[in-house]
């Protein structure tokens, strides 16, 4: 049985490993010149680690990623530490996300308490001037409830806006929760996102964050090497342009060299095809799918991401903060500023200090239309708000990355609207970030999805 996989991201690579293990022949087509998809990285001269184009870290609870690392013998290169996350409020940054050992360094065993994250957040919030004592108690209790409950199905029936406005109190909602929703989904969509999405974030995230020795690119290079060792074929810089039924129960995959026109395509036959790209591209590659399946693909909403990476000759956040959450109302032109080298040592990047300024926006937003120079002019001046001494001369180089399919948006009752990974056309499968639910998309869940869809293909 010959299987084609479109995409060498976390989903495609993991599915390939399991299919190869079960004795299938696998060919992966990848548009990019390397594996990793959205988690792929790049290197500049003098760096011995890659940097992800879009900021990436694992959580200590990312069990599927850790298990894959274990299976491939690279678990010891998945390293964790506890960088500091802060929230901006009226000119200052406050740490509202922490572990109990941050507050009680002499009692590290406190972190073993199942509710340690929620308790720590509650205690840290006591110092947050925006909240009254009552708001703080509500914040802590809400965190505890969300960690303890498993009933996300009832939470997906209500929007996060309605649920949190009711239970977090007006002030707590406005100061803590609403900025997270607005930041991630924008003014137009944030009131429609369901509460299961917020639940999943609180439930599955830990203050301990992880990366891979050499960067996420090195992790995915290792996964791709394992695919090749198992006999899988990886075709990089190759764009799949169409997937057609061949008439004999088989599928024809038409592909061309990245950058070449579709009329120069190579056609090959397979028994099964798995597509791991965006729903939009899936509907273009296989327009012969039944109308209701195509309709469900079109109804899946998502946002794009725009990120500026800047290499500085010195540290920006002198307090050493890693992740800065920036409420849109505070006037920053981006949602988050993340100083990567306050998480991973700058020694891996030739002593340079690397920051990401990132935002999630729709593809019709001006950030998608601006030239790189125009975007730099919008983003760079606000760095002074992180460090009053900041001078543009500190910036030695910048890179801009834009991705149209970056963040699926889950509405009320989302689970009923996700199209099945087994499409109505026999032998054609589709598994994308939009299938990851109720969890927020991430490499861990893409790995899990890859395994699930491979198992389904093997049952077929
Ligand atoms: C801004 C941002 C921040 C993120 N932060 C984190 C984080 O901190 N931690 C985390 O774990 N995850 C994070 N993620 C999410 C994570 O990157 C994704 O969940 C995961 O990489 C998805 O893997 P995938 O294989 O499903 O899709 P993708 O990685 O998108 O893989 C699809 C692949 O298909 C290829 N492709 C597309 N079209 C074609 C074609 N026509 N022919 C051939 N190949 C094609 C693409 O090049 C790509 O390699 C982040 C994502 C973004 C955008």
Describe the structure.
The mean pLDDT is 93. Helix 7 (160-167) runs antiparallel to helix 8. With 460 residues, the protein is an alpha/beta fold. It has a domain at 2-35 and 216-300 and 418-459: FAD/NAD(P)-binding domain (3-Layer(bba) Sandwich), CATH 3.50.50.60. 33% of the residues lie in helices and 23% in strands. Strand 3 and strand 4 (51-52) form a beta hairpin. It is built from 15 helices and 20 strands. Bound molecules: flavin-adenine dinucleotide. Flavin-adenine dinucleotide binds at residues 6-12, 29-32, 37-39, 54-58, 239-240, 276-277, 281, 305, 358, 403, 406, 432-433, 441-444, 446. Flavin-adenine dinucleotide (FAD) binds at residues 6-12, 29-32, 37-39, 54-58, 239-240, 276-277, 281, 305, 358, 403, 406, 432-433, 441-444, 446.
């Amino acid at each position: 049985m010959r299987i084609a996989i479109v995409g060498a991201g976390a989903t495609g690579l993991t599915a390939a490993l399991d299919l190869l293990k079960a004795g299938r022949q696998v060919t992966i087509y990848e548009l990019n010149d390397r594996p990793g998809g959205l988690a792929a990285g790049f290197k500049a001269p003098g760096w011995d680690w890659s940097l992800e184009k879009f900021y990436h870290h694992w959580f200590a609870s990312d069990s599927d990623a850790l298990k894959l690392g274990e299976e491939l013998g690279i678990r010891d290169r998945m390293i964790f530490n506890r960088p500091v996350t802060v929230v901006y409020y009226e000119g200052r940054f406050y740490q509202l996300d922490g572990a109990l050992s941050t507050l009680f360094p002499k009692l590290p065993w406190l972190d073993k308490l199942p509710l340690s994250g929620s308790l720590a957040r509650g205690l840290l919030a006591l110092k947050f001037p925006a909240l009254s004592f009552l708001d703080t108690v509500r914040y802590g209790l809400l965190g505890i409830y969300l960690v303890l409950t498993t009933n996300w199905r009832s939470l997906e029936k209500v929007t996060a806006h309605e649920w949190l406005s009711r239970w977090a109190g007006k002030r707590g909602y406005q100061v803590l929760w609403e900025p997270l929703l607005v930041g991630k989904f924008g003014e137009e969509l944030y009131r429609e996102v369901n509460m299961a999405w917020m639940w999943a974030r609180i439930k599955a995230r830990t203050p301990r964050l992880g990366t891979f020795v050499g960067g996420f690119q090195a992790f995915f290079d290792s996964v791709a090497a394992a695919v090749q060792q198992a006999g899988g074929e990886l075709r990089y810089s190759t764009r799949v342009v169409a997937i057609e039924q061949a008439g004999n129960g088989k599928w024809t995959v038409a592909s061309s060299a990245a950058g070449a026109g579709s009329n120069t395509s190579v056609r090959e036959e397979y028994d099964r095809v798995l597509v791991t790209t965006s729903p939009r591209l899936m509907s273009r590659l296989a327009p012969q799918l039944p109308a209701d399946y195509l309709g469900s693909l079109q109804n899946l909403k998502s946002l794009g991401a725009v990120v500026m990476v800047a290499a500085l000759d010195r540290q920006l956040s002198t307090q050493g903060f890693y992740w800065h959450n920036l409420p849109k109302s505070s006037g920053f032109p981006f949602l988050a500023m993340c100083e990567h080298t306050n998480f991973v040592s700058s020694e891996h990047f030739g002593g340079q200090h690397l920051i990401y300024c990132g935002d999630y926006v729709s593809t019709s937003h001006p950030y998608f239309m601006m030239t790189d120079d125009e975007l730099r002019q919008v983003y760079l001046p606000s760095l002074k708000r992180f460090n009053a001494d900041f001078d543009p001369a500190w910036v030695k180089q910048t890179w801009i990355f834009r991705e149209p399919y970056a963040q699926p948006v889950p509405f009320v009752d989302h689970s009923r609207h996700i199209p099945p990974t087994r499409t109505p056309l026999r032998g054609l499968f589709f598994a994308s970030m939009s299938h990851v639910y109720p969890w927020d998309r991430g490499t861990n869940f893409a790995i899990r999805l890859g395994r699930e869809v491979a198992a389904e293909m093997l049952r077929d």
